[in-house]
Amino acid sequence: MKLNFEKNKSEYIPLLKKLWLDCFEEKIEAVDLFFNRCLGFTSIYTASIEDKPVAMLYLVHSTLNGKKAHYLCSAATSLDYRNLGIMGRLIEYAMSDSSKNGDVYSLLFPANERLYGYYERFGYKPLCTARKAVFTREELIRFAENNQSKRTSVNSYNYEELQRLCLKDNFLLQNNKFISFASAYYSLYDCKTVKSENCFALFEEENGTAEVFYSIYDSFFTLAEILINNSNAKRFVFTGKADDKLYKNSINEKYGMIKSLENNEIIPENTYIGITLS
Question: Is the four-CA dihedral 184, 186, 187, 191 of positive or negative sign?
């Protein structure tokens, strides 16, 4: 079995879409959206046999504290070729190549708890975190009443600047196109997006609870106002990175992994990944 490791082979895309759908519970529209919207800032790494990809992973180009980084996502191996060490070799190939291209950090979000142990074999550490806080609708209404921001609706959003303003440091900075893609991607799974010049949030509602799984904003008061105006939920659960004193009752949770690609680079603790995919 001759195994080839390759990068950005566009002719593989139809086969990669099929492999993605075979390995993940995804809608074909979501897979098409990723390939249509993200390839300009994403590297594709494949392991192939006789010009057929049998394993894949994707590195979404990002930055962390001003240094080049990436978000590793959608790593998968064809069912017929699992347990042969192919994915491990593909990860090592991708990390070696991305390091040569200047990446300093690699971040990922394991799909389940068991995979944390798997990725630790390759030097990833569970140092990524997120904070979780719960508020009632009445509490959010009180916050919204204190909002002093002038909120406007615009056609062009600077999500990168909003990330810097809200998250400050130790977070994976994604470009505007990725944030826009994520909004469209999650809408296919009945998640909602609220956005203005001062705020962007992704959430899903069920049984009177709104799970706000990503948000960036100029102040928490802005977020509270826009959510109250766009959701009838009685309870709001926020997951994210927030230094606001308003989050004083929040708890820190394990939320992904990080690896340094430079031996002398110190890994920042409590790094926030942000939007995650498969």
Answer: negative
Q: Are 68 and 181 in a shared domain?
A: no
Residues 58 and 161 in one domain: no
For residue 158, which amino acid is it? N
What's the total number of domains in the chain? 2
Helix/strand/coil for 147:
coil
What does the block give as tokens for 115? 């995979």
Spatial separation of the C-alpha atoms in residues 268 and 259, rounded to whole Å: 10
Closest by Cα among 214, 244, 239, 229 to 151: 229
Residue 277 lies in a domain: no
**Does one domain contain both 74 and 161?**
no
Entry pTM: 0.94
Q: How far apart are CA 212 and CA 205, in angstroms?
A: 9
* Bridge pairing between strands 209-217 and 199-206: antiparallel
Tens digits of residue pLDDT in 6-36:
999 999 999 999 999 999 999 999 999 999 9
Q: What pLDDT digit, counting tens, does each position of 193-203 carry?
A: 999 889 999 99
Q: Domain of residue 43: give its range.
A: 4-125+255-260
- Are 90 and 164 within one domain? no
